[in-house]
UniProtKB/TrEMBL annotation:
Keywords: Signal
Protein name (database record): Carbohydrate ABC transporter substrate-binding protein (CUT1 family)
Organism of this sequence: Paramicrobacterium agarici
Phylogenetic placement of the source organism: Bacteria, Bacillati, Actinomycetota, Actinomycetes, Micrococcales
Cleaved signal peptide residues: 1-25
UniProt keyword Transport present: no
Amino acid sequence: MKFGSAKRVVALAAAALLSAGVLTACSSGGGDDGGSKTLNVTLANHVWTDVITKKIKEFEEDSGLTVEINQLSEDQLVDNYKVKLNAGSSDVDVMMYRPLQVGKLFGQSGYFADITDRVNDAGDWNWDDFQAGPVGLTTYEDMVVGVPMITENEMLYYRKDLLEKSGLEVPKTMDDLMNAAKTIKEDNDGVAGIVMRSQASAAVTQFSGFLYSFGGTWEDDSGNSAIGSDEAKEAYAFYGKLLHDYGPDQISTDMSWPEAAAIFAQGDAGFWIDASSLYENVYDPEKSKVGDQVGFAPFPEGPAGSKPYNVAAWALGINAASQNQDNAWKFIKWATSPEMTLEIQKEGVPSARTSVWENPEGTSNFPEELAKAIQVNGENGVGNDRPLVIGVAEAREIVGAPIVEAITGGDSDAAADEANQKFQDLLDSEK
């Protein structure tokens, strides 16, 4: 799920508004008296959307509103927002968006209505039930601008049979992981101890958990680059050593998740670290030779604890230019209610609500060990898996360069210093 070049089109189209963007308060727009009884909702093609659209009639009957759904592919969605939001159009009331990719751009451009008071005053709907990581990602400059409804976090996948063969416990710390990866590679000819993403941009998301768990971050409290810090350098070196020493023989530096997942699914690695949402690629027996031996565990602890990413993959917001904001909030409140969230998660769509993960019904369609690991990661998780900037693609290439240097056995400290300056230049250019 990548915006790719389409995201860059949004950035270019919105550039003229960046310096003047101001979030619109939730009091603006039409209320129940002045708002239209027709609600325009723009959604992306997604399993979540498939489920919610089947239940729209229930909302219409209860609210007396008519919901017009505009359902688009991700690229079409971006193009649609580029045209309408940039023009200040009120044709969109509710908008489904990707916080990691466009959250800062849309916030700075003034596209979001501020819904802080709405979520805090929603009573039993219970804003406090939402996990901290996703909530942080749908907050812009201390204002809530979206409600997270789909999440993913960073998972440790492992081979039960290989751990048993070598007499190993499931790793709980980074040191455990390093030692276990070493042992598995030594004990099994042709089998890597671990496989992970190795391409610069693609690896950034999975590296983020290492960065946080070693005490590092992308930016410091002053908004300056922090990837040249001692903690970041230690994380870069550790990630690189895992793959350089204990990864597949002749490790390539162009692997994203499909390539890494394929190696693990073929039985050629003992561990794999990647997104929880990808589990069926190695667990489903039709896709994996070792599906019956796959285990799931929370992200290992580093010097700063276990801090995997736990992100809002998608969220719902209200267009600042909408003249129907009260009714837009009614829809979001209904679509993300505890009851609806439970129904949707039962269809296999992971949510941001703590109560749903604690409900046995909410985890009934997930492997038990996976559900427990997701719940633990949700409690400890950090709300972003990449730098939260406007130029996301450029930033990922910059901060990902030291990962490749470390994997290939080069001087990752020097690469981190070089990347630190480049990332600082990018941050300065966006201020």
